[in-house]
Each structure stands twice: as structure tokens, then as C-alpha cells.
Amino acid sequence: MTARIGVVTFPGTLDDRDALRAARLAGAEPVSLWHRDKDLKQVDAVVLAGGFSYGDYLRAGAISRFSPVMETIIEQAKAGMPVLGICNGFQILTEAHLLPGAMLRNNHLHFICRDQKLRVENAETAWTSDYTRGQEIEVPLKNMDGRYVADERTLDELEAEGRVAFRYLDVNPNGSLRDIAGITNAAGNVVGLMPHPEHAVEPLIGTGKTDGLGFFTSILKKLVNA
Amino acid sequence: MARVVVDVMLKPEILDPQGQAVQRALPRLGFDGIADVRQGKRFELEVEGPVDDAALARIHEMAETFLANTVIEDFTVRVESTETAGASS
């Protein structure tokens, strides 16, 4: 028996196919979910993939957050279903208040596309258990609105509770406060990050590394052993 | 129809690189004496029916939940005109 991992497609989502493939490569059964459909097709976990949902017209993730599929995802995430938000998916999770803080335009105002080193700061979430704390990984980063901001009190809370899941290494590519690349909720089932693990799952493409596959093997182990 | 304007601005403590880019361009264009620029959004809502307390409360809710992200932005709501000049309706 394997687990069913759903990947949502919004109008403007770009990375849903890669996320589905990453789920399959990890050994899961990938399931496409549609933004207008409240039904999650009995998936065990959901990935919100990267892109520019609804053109990011109001704010990144602001319109998708109110889509029918998100109603169910927000409800289920609060009940413990694992949800991973990558890039635009991270922006949607902050807009939905499933994760604290907000994402803003990169401080240098340019679109970034680079291979980015990260340090795994929390290897106990549903999506990071196949890593070790302090492990350095390299995955692609590509975004316009990647600057993570939150008020000082929230940042201190995140640090104190070990909820900074990933930090940028070597350079801070977008002005994110405290070099934060990704965070988790208190329960560890909802994780969001700007860089793209789903683009680093096969040695043939991208960085040539498979550093991103661990997200998908982590969740699979958790679900299958559950 | 009445027009209600919602202005959305980044909170003062949030870095606004777009505003900074505009401000830095000003001297080059011959506009001196501008110490700071902050860039925001303005929504003009054409409201059907009366703009009473109930309608304004709904617009306030709309601004708070959707037009602005109150984690990073402040907003103001104001009625600009109770009727559009020259409109026959």
C-alpha cells in the first residue's frame, strides 16, 4: 500500500507536473487536484505547487486562498493533514493564515533564478524527517515575491519553537528576515518554503543533485507507517 | 452609484523597495526635495444601492480579509461621492 499525494492546479500554476512527478519518484501515488473542486479525492497529503496563481494580481496567493479547493485544504490542514507549500504555495499558505508572516517583492526587485543552498533547521516535520538537522541541501530557487516578513514577536516565536524549517546559506537572495527560506506550523504538518525541492529529484536535470527528493520520501514514510 | 475608495499601504515598518526605487529616480529626473516615497494601492469600488453603515461594514470586512493583508498592510475606507456627477440613475 502506498500513499496518495495530491497536487493542486490553479490557473497560473506552473510546477504542478514536477510536483506530481516528484511524488511518483518517491513511490507515492500522485493525484491531480483542481482549484474549483472542493473534493480532495481522498488524498493523504497535499502539495501546493509553484507558479503565479491568478496572475498574483492582488498579492501573491491572495486570490487562490479563497478558491473552493482551499476551503477543504484549510479545514483538513487544521485537522492534521500534511500540506507542503512551495513558492507560490508558500505564499498561499501565509495568505490563508495556515503559516504566519507574509511574502513580499524581493528586496532588489529582480526575479531570481538560481541554485540555492539551504540549511535544514527542523528535521522533525512531516516533510523533512528524511533529512538531518543542520544538513545542507541545494535546490533551485525562482521567484519574484520571495521576501519573508513577519513582526519581531512572530520571528522570535518561530525561532524559539524551532519552526524555522529552512534558512538560506551563503547569500540571502531576496531580503527575507533572518534568512528564513521556509517555516512550519506548530504541529509540523504544514510546511512552506520558497525554493523548489520538486525540481531537484532526478540526477539528469537541474543541479544534478536529488536534494529535494527527501521532502517526498519523508511524507511517504510518515503516511505509510501511520 | 456611490464610490467608496479603499487605500492600502504597507505598514510603516515594512521595507518598500518599490517606493525606494521611485524615490531614487526623482533627482535624476529633476524632482528635488522628496525625502521618501511609499507606494501603495487604491481600490475604487462602485457600490450598488445605498452606502449605509451596513454596506460600509461589509466593505470594511472585504478590505480586511481580501484587499489588504493586515499582516503587512494598513488600509483606510472612505466614501468619495454619494452620486456620480451627471449620472441619470
From TrEMBL, chain A:
InterPro entries: Class_I_gatase-like (IPR029062), PRibForGlyAmidine_synth_PurQ (IPR010075). The keyword Ligase applies. It holds the Pfam family GATase_5. PROSITE patterns: GATASE_TYPE_1 (PS51273). Pathway: Purine metabolism; IMP biosynthesis via de novo pathway; 5-amino-1-(5-phospho-D-ribosyl)imidazole from N(2)-formyl-N(1)-(5-phospho-D-ribosyl)glycinamide: step 1/2. Keywords: ATP-binding, Cytoplasm, Glutamine amidotransferase, Hydrolase, Ligase, Nucleotide-binding, Purine biosynthesis. Its EC number is 6.3.5.3, 3.5.1.2. It comes from the Bacteria. It is found in: Cytoplasm. PANTHER family: PHOSPHORIBOSYLFORMYLGLYCINAMIDINE SYNTHASE SUBUNIT PURQ (PTHR47552). Part of the FGAM synthase complex composed of 1 PurL, 1 PurQ and 2 PurS subunits. Part of the phosphoribosylformylglycinamidine synthase complex involved in the purines biosynthetic pathway. Catalyzes the ATP-dependent conversion of formylglycinamide ribonucleotide (FGAR) and glutamine to yield formylglycinamidine ribonucleotide (FGAM) and glutamate. The FGAM synthase complex is composed of three subunits. PurQ produces an ammonia molecule by converting glutamine to glutamate. PurL transfers the ammonia molecule to FGAR to form FGAM in an ATP-dependent manner. This is Phosphoribosylformylglycinamidine synthase subunit PurQ. It comes from Streptomyces roseicoloratus.
Automatic annotation (TrEMBL), chain B:
It is found in: Cytoplasm. Its EC number is 6.3.5.3. InterPro entries: PurS, PurS-like_sf. It comes from Streptomyces roseicoloratus. PANTHER family: PHOSPHORIBOSYLFORMYLGLYCINAMIDINE SYNTHASE SUBUNIT PURS. Part of the FGAM synthase complex composed of 1 PurL, 1 PurQ and 2 PurS subunits. Pathway: Purine metabolism; IMP biosynthesis via de novo pathway; 5-amino-1-(5-phospho-D-ribosyl)imidazole from N(2)-formyl-N(1)-(5-phospho-D-ribosyl)glycinamide: step 1/2. Part of the phosphoribosylformylglycinamidine synthase complex involved in the purines biosynthetic pathway. Catalyzes the ATP-dependent conversion of formylglycinamide ribonucleotide (FGAR) and glutamine to yield formylglycinamidine ribonucleotide (FGAM) and glutamate. The FGAM synthase complex is composed of three subunits. PurQ produces an ammonia molecule by converting glutamine to glutamate. PurL transfers the ammonia molecule to FGAR to form FGAM in an ATP-dependent manner. One of its GO terms (molecular function) is phosphoribosylformylglycinamidine synthase activity. Keywords: ATP-binding, Cytoplasm, Ligase, Nucleotide-binding, Purine biosynthesis. The gene is purS. SUPFAM superfamilies: PurS-like. Belongs to the PurS family. Pfam families: PurS. Its main location: cytoplasm. It catalyses: N(2)-formyl-N(1)-(5-phospho-beta-D-ribosyl)glycinamide + L-glutamine + ATP + H2O = 2-formamido-N(1)-(5-O-phospho-beta-D-ribosyl)acetamidine + L-glutamate + ADP + phosphate + H(+). Gene3D superfamilies: Phosphoribosylformylglycinamidine synthase subunit PurS. This is Phosphoribosylformylglycinamidine synthase subunit PurS. The keyword Metal-binding does not apply.
